Amino acid sequence: MDLAYGPEYEAFRTEVRGFIAKHKDKAPRRFGVARPSDEVIAWQQLLIAHGYAARTIPKEYGGYGAEPDILKSRIIAEEFTAAKLPMGLANQGISMLVPTLLELGTEEQKKKWIEPTLKGEVIWCQGYSEPGSGSDLASLQTKATEDGDDFIINGQKIWTSTAHAADMIFCLVRTEPDKPKHEGISYLIFSMKTPGIEVRPLTTMTGHAEFNEVFFTDVRVPQKDIVAGRGQGWFVANATLKHERGMLGDPNQAGTRLKEIVDLMNEELVDGTRLIDHPVYRDRLAHLQSRVLAMQFHGLRLLTAASKKEDPGIARLIVKLQGCEINHQLAALAIDALGEIGVLYGDSPHLRAHGSWQHRYMFDLGLIIGGGTAQIQKNIISERGLGMPREPKPAKA
Amino acid sequence: MEFGLSEDQKLLQESIRGTLERVSPLERVRKAAESREAQADDIWQALAELGVPGMLVPEAQGGMGMALLDAVLVSEMLGRFVAPTPFIGTAVLAPLALAGAGTKAQQETWLPKLAAGEIVAGVAISEKASGARDGAGVAASGGKLSGKALFALDAATAGILIVADKAGGLHLVKGDAKGLTKVALTSIDLTRSLTELQFDNVEAEALSGGDAQAALRRMIDAGRVMLAADVLGAGWMMIEKAVAYAGERKQFGRVIGSFQAVKHMCAEMASELEPCRSLVWYAAHAFDTMPDEASLMAAHAKSLTGEVGRFVARTATEVHGGMGFTDLLGLHYWFKRIGLDRQLLGSPERVRHEAAVLQGWVAAD
User: Fold this and answer.
1) Distances in whole angstroms, Cα of residue B196 to Cα of each of A356, B154, B258
2) What's the CATH number for B7-115?
3) A130 has which bridge partners?
4) In chain A, how many domains are there?
5) Closest chain B C-alpha to A250 CA, distance in angstroms
6) Beta bridge partners of A37
7) A383/B303 Cβ within 8 A
8) Among A194, A316, B12, B56, which residue's beta carbon has the most beta carbons within 10 A?
9) Residues A89-106: pLDDT tens digits?
């Protein structure tokens, strides 16, 4: 056990701090709602040039080309967070498509797509879920029928965030209808400007349209825009989902949220008494602090395992389930402590923090459901982590 | 940056595991519990051969001079095998008291004996950690102790006792001192001894070689971390037993472990308990190297394992169905061990209040 980073890393930290001191005025103030603003794109390019974004992506594809070093990545995150500066872009293209292409794409696909994606010039959306295929994603029905050198795509996707602003989609379609469900899927990438695509915003319980539905009617896409070959889509998607689950349940986000609640409970008065003086709210806060700390230290443990290329086993599988649940419980505490004020929303008088606690409480429920529901996570934990048997398939009627 | 165990620590834990697998099987634990042995001498002897009683004793006094994180690994295994030993009092709290506040003479006299496993040390600090109940409290005056202390740990067979007085001073009392009466307290957990100590003008030596208040604080923190590690070991054993049972027990023509209702109970237990490991390690490491954080992290480790331990103990019992409820299966030894761990040296609510005070969320009472 040694929580010090050592001289090589402390030197690196000094370098990051130097960059921040010199360039912090260039950090974007306006982020752009659907697409990154010009300021964000300029900041992203500056970060890539110095190795603080796209750090381990090879230079030939527009990255910085450093050796993977998880501790350096963490130091960058720590220093940017401490300076309250935005990190590099983290959209679905960068977080999910780029690693997938690096692992499984052709040289042509890598050359064409990775660099503009990293720079924030090309925005992607993910076409996985369908109305009839959520947890059982492999049952998806959007079909791609051969027509000469092309596929003709018909069907519907749902939960497609950023589809309304995206240039491109990475999409799972059924190309081999006669094969078993997992073997009949292909991973296609194509332009959202292709004729026959309709995007409809999907308003959620938060009152905002954070997602979309995407309808495909006779959408013509070249067969060559498949990644990793026909029938390989399920394998490709799993490679990508691995990257997505890594993004959900980040314990440092919970740490930030906990600090906000401590401040809130110190500042808010009820009958002239601070919320933190109320023993029940304070006990809930301390209990959640225990859980947040445990997950933060758990994160350090996983980081160490990753840097030594060890498999942490069940310790890794629990992160999404625990992390999303703790975030949700934190929002719940803030709402409860605020009393009636906690349910104010929209543009109401007396609103606190722009209504963000209610928004988070609801949106977190979406995160508990999305990216593999809590129940699917428990299946994975019990089957892969504890070695318990799979649910037997129902007998065919 | 390395958050994890060293190779030496992994080897230490494996050697303790191997020894306890051999010397502390369920039949041995049951025999100790049913015959109300305060400690299983054979188990303690086997651990003494590995140097366990002296692991925290400085090398100068014949010990191994190890860290609390090392002791965590032992405590976790003792919980895993519900082993009836006087580990916390003898190998952890008494050495900390003597090394922290004892005079040189007291250290030279007692630490080598503790390290060699020649004597057992009991510790009476409950009133300072959990508050005084039923009129408990020890007054010190002119080298004599009067009053009573409840929930003394490992005191039944102890050759010496470390006793905290009302003012937070620490005293060393011989186990056979005149005027000392020991009354056994029977808890649900028969794998550890709890004792009421009654003092009628009992001769005592003050630990006057250092800051006794600070040493007492360290004892409480260390004790909490040890109990948290005990829950970690006992809790994981319950999960493993539940998973194994669910993989054998058949109902409706299939093993019950293939039902999602049962699998999800097991997944929830593992998901709640495994992060506790990281918190317990951190709390021990803070105790060893980051004194400013030690009390807060010990409180968090104690509180979270108390809560999660209760959830795991009842859920693992439920997975076992009716069998879990029987004496025959013996699962209840783990259930009760976790139950005692939760209450000793500060229950979750109490230590969370301390955590709030330590951070300045509220003023001390």
Assistant:
1) 53, 11, 48
2) 1.10.540.10
3) A133
4) 3
5) 14
6) none
7) no
8) B56
9) 988 999 899 999 999 999
